[in-house]
Amino acid sequence: MSFQQGLSGLNAASSSLDVIGNNISNASTVGFKSGSANFSDIYAASLGIVSGAKIGIGVGVGAVQQQFTQGNLTTTNNPLDLALNGGGFFRLSDEGAISYTRNGQFHIDNGGYIINDQRARLTGYPVAANGTITPSNPVELQISAGQIAPLASSDPLAGEMRAVLNLDSRGSVPAVTPFDFSDPETYNYSTALTVFDTLGVVHNLTTFYVLNGTAAPGEWTVHATLDGANPQVVSGSNPGGNLVFNTSGALDPASALRTLPTWNLTTGAATPWSPGVMDFTGTTQYGSGSNVDRLTQGGFTSGSLVGVGVNADGIVQGRYSNGQTRNMGQVVLATFADPNGLLSLGNNQWSLTSLSGPELIGAPASGSRGVIQSAAVEDSNVDLTKALVDMITAQRNYQANAQTIKTQDQIMQTLVNLR
């Protein structure tokens, strides 16, 4: 029986060395999870016979379990290198076959799909036409390389233009009249804003502010030009169509919204065209120099894709040459009741089994799922120092079991030599 015990010990030590060697060989493999060999004793007894001498007959490998502990994160120069900090697995699709991985080294193929080195496609939630993402059945994420259409400053989706100014209450009525945008002596202050027509063509909108010589010293007339031509008065709903301030320098809310005039365009865009409504809420008339605190509009020209990034919540965003960003989907993560029940497929990929339980899909940072760090990878969680010490221990175990076989052989030889 000692031969069998020793042999089982040699096999167990050899299996342990195999696991340790596999760990060491993958010490630099991105997303690799180290394994450990679990051993169990082997006991033999005849059914129904109770014996006081319960000597086992050796050892066996009970299981090889992977340790799904967190690996260190290392930054890279690829924005599609994704590191998982926390629980979960990336979900991949290879012609409909689903697998899971912690290796987040991804890139884009010629079809725009986000793929790994084995060309399996990363999956996630799709994006609606308006840019919103709603949890649904995951799809293969695809990056569109097409241009995004322009958005006119007058489009309701662009929102209202905002102008927050301070107009100097110490100013005097211009000595030169009438208003002439080419003559600074005919107005008190001016400022410019870039706007976009329905084709995304850039126009320069300049607004001019003239202090009125009325009995109410807090009234300012606003004029506007588009591309330096055709000055017109900016209209409003209040009497006289002016910006009206009270004695505290606050703007009368009734005069805050100003409808910009229309101009005839020659760009091929819709004409006559108005940039829309300018909201002056927050504008003041204080005794300090005229200045601009805020001047914004929501239109933009067309743009080409110049880069892709992934947020911590897994949302994939495209960056465009016009300064805009667009959601292109959201990476999903899968968790399992028992990750050790997953079937290893190699290439740092696993598939689910009845032991792992069904996949539980959700967005990063939800539930027990980790967050995503773009331009980074998760290193192997192999502890080389521990692996080398374990290898020495396994070697000693192998030598000890070999010694038991040698000793048993010597005993048997002594018995054979008896006369």
From TrEMBL:
Signal peptide: none annotated. Residues 166-300 form the Flagellar hook protein FlgE D2 domain. Keywords: Bacterial flagellum, Cell projection, Cilium, Flagellum. It is found in: Bacterial flagellum basal body. Residues 83-144 form the Flagellar hook protein FlgE/F/G-like D1 domain. Pfam families: Flg_bb_rod, Flg_bbr_C, FlgE_D2, LlgE_F_G_D1. Residues 373-418 form the Flagellar basal-body/hook protein C-terminal domain. Residues 6-33 form the Flagellar basal body rod protein N-terminal domain. InterPro entries: Falgellar_hook_FlgE_sf, Flag_bb_rod_N, Flagellar_basal_body_rod_CS, Flagellar_FlgE/F/G, Flg_bb/hook_C_dom, FlgE/F/G-like, FlgE_D2, LlgE_F_G-like_D1. One of its GO terms (cellular component) is bacterial-type flagellum basal body. It comes from the Bacteria. GO terms for biological process: bacterial-type flagellum-dependent swarming motility. Belongs to the flagella basal body rod proteins family. A flexible structure which links the flagellar filament to the drive apparatus in the basal body. PANTHER family: FLAGELLAR HOOK PROTEIN FLGE, FLAGELLAR PROTEIN. This is Flagellar hook protein FlgE. The gene is flgE.
